[in-house]
## 1
Amino acid sequence: MIEVLSSAALATVQDLGRTGSLRWGVGTSGAMDNLALAAGNLLLGNALDAAAIEVPVFPFKVRFDEDCAFALTGADCAARLDEAPLLPWWVHQARAGQVLTLGLPQGGAQQRGSRAMLCLAGGVDVPEVLGSRSTQLRGAFGGHEGRALRRGDVLRAAGGGAACKTGFGLVPPALALPLQQGGVAAVRVLPAAEYMAFEPASRDAFWAGEWKITSQSDRYGYRLEGEALRPIAPMELRSHGIVPGVIQVPHSGQPIIQMRDAQPSGGYPKFGTVIEADMWRLGQAPIGSRIRFIETTWDEALAALDEVRAWLDKVARMVELHRGAPVSAARQPG
Amino acid sequence: MIAQRPSISLLGTTALIFEAPGEMNLTSQQRIWALAHETQAWPEIREAVPGMNNLMLTFLRPPRGLAALEALEARLRDAWDEAVALPREGRVVELPVVYGGAGGPHMADVVAHTGLSVEQIVELHSAPLYPVYALGSHPGYCYLGGMDARIATPRRKVPVLSIPGGAVSIGGAQTGVSASAGPSGWNTIGSTSMSFFDPALDPPAALQPGDMIRFRVEGIVR
């Protein structure tokens, strides 16, 4: 069991998302950085889609009430176990009574993430609802009681108390799979249905410009600020399905990227879609930072998905080596 | 602008959208339901999700390569050509509505826009049997067809931060009932009480496409 000691604003239990319930109006939810979640689970020998705690606001503090292995992935948050500093992207062992503290994300402007994943041995043990343990905030179900965590909440790790190989880690994907354009973090975008219905100058400006992620950005969507995108003529669309990554352009001309808590349908014109393979990059982009968009093609977008899968396969093989090795051979954090 | 031919577009590598041609109507929606039923069984499709005269298909496995994608699109167009309107003998659900007052804070805006009286708006709104076209927006929310064009009122310039569950509202030419509290750009003209969604039930949504809603006037508050 772990107990939340901090106010924990907006921290939620997430897995890889709830697919298959869109037709009932249920959006997917799921980890904003799905790669950090999958890698953390691999490090612990969990199922890839086990649930973890996504932490977007710091400091965040929990106390372990029993021995429990855990992995920290996502943003590097100068974590400490009691007073001992912890390496990020690493598997650690907590003893009963120890307190884990996550501080502010650190690193240079282009390396700093914004969300930490706290993965626990066996995964966070909350009931599966409609095939997922992710928190559905609008529907108030899933995750821990269908809401964000609060001080005093107690969560159970399914593999708490069990022996688990610890003391090893991996190179984070931000370093292994970097993507920048003109020195600015970038994501790849496939044009969507209404792309050609925008002014040519707006289309050019979209790819050439830098876009600021404004403070009105959260798990539902990122509101961007840049040169306004102008449609050739006003558009009224029929309500239709949308997915995380879709870039909508409301009347103001300032785009909104739908994120993991996006509703499953919408009606604003769609300029493009951030490809699934790059959603983890966006999930880590801090509020106030700038991003750029790179136009991509169907085949390139599939190759990008393959690249992500290959990285996870590599992580799985590396973890296999560590977990197969005797405990004394495992490297310890310095 | 009304399209003459169906259109297909991508939502990244996650999904594609098929949009039916022509004016929005129930017959076209019934063909969308038939297309959803057919495509749900295709091996590369995770979920077929009807919208308003359109259909989103999410991929279990995105087709490998542009040629495979184009083949899927061609198969989809053929399936649409062969899709026969699938009428559904849905249930009729009656919802008692209190119009106006604290539960209908934007009734005055609909009056101002339409030039009709509150009584006329209530009469026009409660007259039809509204077919559920599709679910979306939030868990259990129903997109309805068939609202009288005379009470159509544009979406609000500034969305309301939160309207309660059960809010009966008008957005453009559409009407609906929110299934849970949340932000909305629609004009709320009344309120009802109905549980639209329970994740513990199978199916979790109380209403399905093809079911019908009738709003019964429980009261009018001025």
## 2
Amino acid sequence: MIRALVVGFGLVCFSFTVLQYSTLLIYAALSGRLLRDNRAGRRPVALVKIATDRTMPGVSVIMPAYNEENVITHTTVSALAQEYPHIEVIVVNDGSKDATLQVLIDHFHMEAYDNNPRQGPIPTERVHTVYRSRVEPRIVVVDKAPSGAKADNSNVGINTASYPWVVVMDADEFMERDTIARCMVEVVAAPDTTAMVGGTLLPANDIVIDGPNILERHTPRNYWVGCQLIEYLTAFLVARPGLSSVRAMPIVSGGFGLFRRDAVVAVGGYRHGHLGEDMDMCLRVQRDLADRGEECRVVQVPESLCWTEFPQTKDVLRRQRIRWHRGLKMIMSDHRSMIGRKRYGPVGTVGVGSLFVFEWLGPILEAIGWLMIVGLCLAGWVDPQAAFAVFLTTQLIGMALTMLSVAIMTRYLQTFTRRSDVLRLFGWAVAMNWGYRQLTLVWRIRSLFPGATGWGEMPRAGFKTNPAAAAPGVATSASAAV
Amino acid sequence: MLVKLRAIDVSMDALTFTWVLAAIAGNVVVVIVMWTFRVRRRGVRSAQRDGVTWKRAHHLGSELAAGRDINRKAPALTQLLDTTDQPMLVAAALAVAVRQEHAEAHPALFSAVGRSRLATLLRDRIDHADANTRIEALEIVEVLRVHLLLGDAAVLTRSDDKAVVRAACDAVVELEPSIGIGILIGLVGGGDSWVLDSLGRAVDAAARRETSPVPLSRSQWRSAPMLAQRALSESATFSRATVTDALMALVEALEHSTTSRRLAAVTALSASIEHPAAQIALAGALGSDDRMVRFATAANLADSPAGRDILRRTAASDDGSDAARMAAEVLWTTDDPALVEVPAGGLRVVGS
């Protein structure tokens, strides 16, 4: 009886593994086809038409900021330097304890113009003052009561926005000059149905900037950052473009996303207190539009790049991943009713369904599976050589799939072109599968049990602006000890 | 446990099968790594080669667009297009240079392009089955004004693919605005908002280049705020159209159910700001229930002295609307000497 149960569970795990790997392969094929296509985002003429057309709709870039004095001017400058005709930058200061607000006031010559701003369509914490610049009319700073919640800060930004499209991003992110134009190309392709556009997040830990320009782009030297990069490449260059191709993308990353403002306001913006507020908002928008019988197009643009500082230490990363997984639990609780319902189309069945199966159920099955194999080996029921063969095979297949994302990046994005950078990427693709992945599995299981959900303090290294600091072999503040 | 692979008539035990899978996976890893490095090397080489061609073409395009050294550069451009093995790359670089030139590009550039073989190459691409290839060709036809392909572009305005239709319409509008407007009017009833945007651009293009009236009837321009703006600004341009009717159409559009129409109406009225009727409509729009309309109106009013006058008067009123606050912001950030302080009690204009 027990033997039958064990064999049965083994078959379930085997089937799940086959399903997971084949799904990733299908996504990779779809993503490759999407990236190979001569789409508007890959045509220089289409991009320059967007960048020089004064009839294009405006975009408000919203940056919630808390204690970002080291980076806020760099990120604001990168937003203002976007090659797009109508841009507005809204920095929402969430009661920073450092000099974030003063840095902005000094750098952009800002002065208060409204000490009693009216509440917008989305309820938020109280806004103290709105500042405007005397030299740069496109920038607004909103100083508000501290909430400790990105959701509230994003909602304040959405309330303040003047334009019909909003970009919500973190205040420690640096955009390429054409990041927003590449997203708006997708909006122009289908202006009546596009509601959300996602980009690709890459680590800013090892880039060198000069004003609004990125001078050098290097792959990370830090173990944790390197392994995260491989995870992100798999997500942004394989999984999401694949899901986007079949109209099943359930999320646009909270780190960088372009949203139609009226669609976000209609669902009340981001939900305060929700641990997966970005995915929750995306799904609520899609549900709302589907319930109203309107088409909702959610697109991933792999070429639209945004550079953000990744966690460099195990502790910060652990807190992040536990929080993310607890957010996923809330998402499953709120939105699993979308699975299988015709009204929500592929995003309900394929998008939310794959989240449930691969992101929620998957780690549980995997953890139980490995524990069982170890237990059975110790009990003498399973030949250790056979167990090792299974382990090695799954590891090698996993490595092949993660390396596929590196291959896709090298072939189509060509962001890292130096041989040493590509070699380092493959190194991280190997390292990620031996230790890092298993550790994140432990954290995901840990998140199933009650515990703290806060972000804690994430020390910021800031952006490198001195080219000499990025020379090989030179220790930098970004290369934190493992 | 035996694993049977019928396709290759092999059976083996499960452990051996697992080792075989591991070996295959290991080989796949090696193949992926080797392929990636090969692709990287090829990509770097072609990027270097393409970069040289792009820079040369872009430089020629910028110089000609600005009208500098035409006698030497125009033949060089024609020769480059005729001899390069990357004509689409050269054409794209020229198109980018033209769009980046803020003023209208010098006609010598378009003549140089017209004398080359580019039209023949673009015709082949317009006839291509792939929609993206056609659209790319149409974009270049539009920006480089390849008049020889006007007919080919006009035919594609009846394509089943909406993206191709849009690119074709944009190309026709750029080559012959009045023909483009006629085609776009026929598409207005289709419900796509891009048609209105293209129509607005077409009307602007026609106003810049042509003096003859655009033949339209009232039932047609009522759906198109940009066309109503043309009637408003030119009064009797349209047959059976009057200024009052044009204003009514635009005011109706201010209350349309779709955001795109409302914003298009604001833009259309702002383009005719010198007309008192447009000023009245825009002053009213500052108090609209739709926040986006209020802010768009205020932003548009800031662009002209008459508009700033309206905003200044609105800012001084007591209704406390957020449009008044936007007016304060606008007065603050233009070179208008009027400054606005915002003490705790409300707005106060100083220094005017």
